[in-house]
Amino acid sequence: MFRNFPGLVHLGVRALPRLLVSGAIGILVPLAGFAQQGAGASTVNASGAASISVEPDLALITIQYSAAGRTPAIAGRAAAERANAIRAAIIALGVPPDSLPTTGAGGWRWTNRSGIQVRNDMRDTSYVTNDAFTVRLRNLALVGRVIDTALVRGAQTISNVEFQATNTREVELEAIRRATLDARARAAAVAAASGLALGRVVEVNVITMPGAIAMPAAMSEGLSLARAADAGTTIVAPELKVQVNVNGKWEMVARRR
Q: How would DSSP label each residue in 15-73?
């Protein structure tokens, strides 16, 4: 298996001209060594990279809660009431209702099905319903208040906070441009050191990280979480990056005299 390393340069044989652009994470298979196939058939493979910081514009907050009862039905109803209370309190902060799960004729609709736990201490049996929902928050200034409000209203755990950048197309295009120039400059340096000049492009492979990587709050570098009795929870969103690798192949031709 060949792996892609930014800045790695390979010399290889000439290939038919083609352009390959991929939005998925991938690896260009480099050609090792140096060969010629007729006059002016030498080629050089080179890779370049670019990384551009972006601001997140979406937070995903996963709120977990539970409720107990003497029967599964009672536990389920208690959990639904708790979810309703948490949801109403979050909406009261100014969060749009469509940023949270909605209700229907069958009650709450969740991504994960409720789990039932049975507790039996030899005298009595109780049932516990565990569930969770995710809040999609565009106003990142409300992240801390949403967390505090959910906990006050009965949430047991805030299991995850993710930050995403959802509008990165222009930044991605700029990163592709920079990475391409980086790869071409490396190839030109090899050609010059070989007593040749860089010719036409034979192949280009663009490897992008899709959008900006979503980063869990507990693992994100640059994210701070401070809790004080009077100040509440403060969340500082991390810096996200759009990363691009470009691998290319160019002909090497004789220098013009």
A: -----EE-SS-----PPPS---SSTT--EEEEEEEEEEEE---EEEEEEEEEEEESSHH
Reported as a single tens digit per residue, the pLDDT across 101-118 is: 644 333 343 333 344 555
Q: Of the candidates 179, 250, 239, which has an alpha carbon nearest to the alpha carbon of residue 53?
A: 239
pLDDT in tens, 165-176: 988 899 999 999
Compute the 3-state secondary structure of the chain and give helix, strand, coil in percent, each to the nearest 5: 25, 40, 35
| Interacting residues of 153 by C-beta distance below 8 A, sequence separation 6+ | 82, 85, 86, 89
Q: Quick one: tokens of 140?
A: 């990142």
Q: What is the pTM of this model?
A: 0.65
What is the model's pLDDT at position 82?
Answer: 94
Q: Which two tokens stand for residue 19?
A: 């352009």
List, in order of start, the domains of the chain with CATH numbers: 9-55+167-254 (3.30.110.170), 58-163 (3.30.70.2970)
